[in-house]
Amino acid sequence: MMDGKVVVVTGAGGGIGRDIALAMAAEGAKVVVNDLGTSTTGEGASAGPAQQVVNEIQAAGGTAVANTESVAEAVAANRIIQCALDTYGRIDGVVNNAGILRDRIFHKMSDPEWDAVVKVHLYGSWYVSRAAANHFKEQGSGAFVHMTSTSGLIGNFGQANYSAAKLGLTAFSKSIALDMAKFNVRSNCIAPFAWSRMIGSIPTNTPEEQARVARMQQMTPAKIAPLAVYLLSDAAKEVNAQVFAVRNNEIFLMSQPRPIRSVHRGEGWTPQHIADHAMPALKGSFIAMDRSADVFGWDPI
Question: By its UniProt entry, which Pfam families does this protein fall under (predicted)?
């Protein structure tokens, strides 16, 4: 499905990114395997993880090159895309997968913990996508896949930084889709359920958290890769501005915010009228304070 295409996969040195890179190459893509080689909190750096995945791809008969630039800096992100152009002469797809976690309960979260996570997930996706955008526009084709999360789409404890960045990514993806559809450029999101290094750092301090992690350990990163490959392929030319979730052998199309219910008062509203009329009328349709684990509470298939 990916013959002749050149794809950048960020954060591809392990976990979900690794399996996406392997699957892209198996379907014929030339892959730029980008990974800074840091820990799940963004510390340290090593060229080893990216090169190891390249070695795996080449051993299987595929084509790939390693790249160790950071997505969190604009100049470095431009070099990631330039690596594809210099090595293979074009760029056809981008998977924004690179990420870190610095979980902390909201009222204890520090500015550096907030900044680091938003910088990698949201700014990183902006920098890499923007670097590819003009090339996509000029050639009249291209596709983005951004990794979001149900922590942002639904909610989770201790992840204000991560949740904000991941929900921001869905709006970012929609804006790309709207702005670039006339150039035959598509942008979609995947919320992956998969056991990885990053998920492995989720706290397991309560029985509920332990049960959630145990469920996620059954879900391998390889289950995410087929949808990412499909979304970057020409077979998905009619699929744009959507948000999907993958959970083991399940694929979900996720909702996007739309009006649920309304109230009207011809003479306008006062605070007291809102208290007496509007809120009682709307309360039956309030969204519950769910976490991702509450909504996806059943064992994966």
Answer: adh_short
Residue with tokens 């995945």, as numbered in its chain: 53
Structure confidence by residue, pLDDT tens digits, 141-170:
999 999 999 999 999 999 999 999 999 999
Prediction pTM value: 0.91
Q: What is the pLDDT of residues 20-43, one digit of tens each?
A: 999 999 999 999 999 998 656 556
- Give CA–CA dist 219/240, Å, rounded: 26
DSSP 210-241: HHHHHHHTTS-GGGTHHHHHHHHSGGGTT--S
**Amino acid of residue 152:** G
- Catalytic residue among 88, 123, 127, 162, which? 162
- The answer to whether the CB of 191 falls within 8 A of the CB of 245 is yes
Contact criterion met (CB below 8 Å) for 37 and 239? no
Beta-carbon contacts of residue 201 (< 8 Å; ≥ 6 apart): 40, 41, 101, 103
Query: In the annotation, is 162 catalytic?
Result: yes
Does residue 93 contact residue 7 with C-beta atoms inside 8 Å? yes
